Amino acid sequence: MLSKYESFLRIVKDEDGYYRLYTPTRRPFMGICVQRKHVGVYVMPMCENEFLVGELSEKQIGKGTLGFTRDDDPFLEKMPSFIERCFQHCIDTNQVPMD
Questions:
Q1: CATH of the domain at 41
Q2: CB 96 within 8 A of CB 84
Q3: Tens digit of pLDDT for each residue in 3-44?
Q4: Which end of the chain, N or C, is more open, meaning fewer C-beta atoms within 10 Å of its C-beta?
Q5: For 29, left (φ over 0), alpha (ψ -120 to 50), or beta?
Q6: 19 in helix, strand or coil?
Q7: pTM, whole model, 2 decimals?
Q8: Domain span including residue 59
């Protein structure tokens, strides 16, 4: 889901069970970490703008964290539009310059 943003962002970690992207201005964008009881999605833009989470609020387990326990979770279908909102937030706040 994040591969289409890789050309605009910087991959900081890409290992089994751990993936992390930063903006060109060196701010965290999103990280995905496979943990014992869930897969955590850590989203810095969500900390900056609480309204980005939208309908995924049911999966929110922290101020900037979403948690998924099943790979067939119907909320995963909502992730692409959520990621797009977060990316647009980074453009709007000049974290991702689009010159």
A1: 3.90.1150.200
A2: no
A3: 999 999 999 999 999 999 999 999 999 999 999 999 999 999
A4: C
A5: alpha
A6: strand
A7: 0.91
A8: 3-92
